[in-house]
Amino acid sequence: MGTHTMSPLGLSSTEECVYRFFLRNPGAAVRDAHTAAPMDGEGVHRAAGRLRDRGLLHGSEERTWATDPGVVVARLAEEQLDAAYRTLRRLADPRPILRSLWRDVPAPSLVGGGGVHAGSAIALDRLENLGQALARIDRAAFHADAEILAAVPDRALVPLSTAHTLSLGLRCLRRGVRVRTLLGSGAPIPGTGADHLRRLRSHGAEVRVAEGLSELVLVYDRRIALVPVDAHDIDRGVLCIEESGLVSSLVALFERLWAAATELADLPPSKPDTESPTGTQRTVLLLMCTATKDEVGARAAGMSLRTYRRHVSDLLALLGACSRAQAALLARERGWV
Questions:
Q1: Residue 26 has pLDDT above 90, yes or no
Q2: DSSP3 helix / strand / coil % (the chain, rounded to 5)
Q3: How many CA atoms lie within 13 A of 199 on its CB side?
Q4: Pairing state of beta strands 262-263 and 57-59?
Q5: What Gene3D superfamilies does this protein's entry cite (predicted)?
Q6: What is the domain range of residue 82?
Q7: Based on the structure, what is the number of domains in the chain?
């Protein structure tokens, strides 16, 4: 058998031995299968029963046949892929687990002064530079469940118009998170910002223009807010606020501005859609999800290993994914595989 065992398909070594016995001996009795497996007769009977329940064996105790290997391998592989996909989905969105753990944490008492806390998180935290602010935006967006509010004055468009923040916004929209963005009306939108806004709007984001917008405000699920330390220089740092009263006041301010704002006029037409993969990319995507090694995938695709890996890199960028596992999840959500 070498290394070609059926364990990746969810079979134990005994179950595999019994299945292979009936492949070699069609119509044999179950009691004869103990010669093929290092177990007693009762253990072999239990393994045969499990295989019959799963459709790998059919017939009676006296005359048993193995189901066609092509049918068996395809069905078991699909079952394992579905199970792996469900596991990856749970790992990709661990927020329900995190929330259940927070419910078990007792409310803290304020001892010896210190900072103001909400749960285990600091209710008012200063982030010293733009890098720290973007990292906190990343974390807050990942945990957002319902809504993201963003009031973005003109001067903040460039530092916030990055490929990374665009990817964050698109992932939130695909999860069903509502995204509302207010823009200042004092200056034209830079090219990169316009392109990102166009992408976000095409995925369901709501964008309006407000007169006299001067403060950057980001609010996540009406629980966490980010505001700049210096309204005129976002690079000097950002305050992360989790105190409910302050956050509620910022939400109320946003809602007043939103009610008075106007819909953003149509942006210049975008270039032809480049989000759908090409035929070659679809082939590489499928192989990336199924092939055991890049070398195997490259041979199956009929291309060099270097070209294959370049296509993989392009697919990760196209999907906004940080890993192949995440790319597989996002591709499945889009119906590409």
A1: yes
A2: 55, 15, 35
A3: 24
A4: unpaired
A5: Winged helix-like DNA-binding domain superfamily/Winged helix DNA-binding domain
A6: 7-89
A7: 3
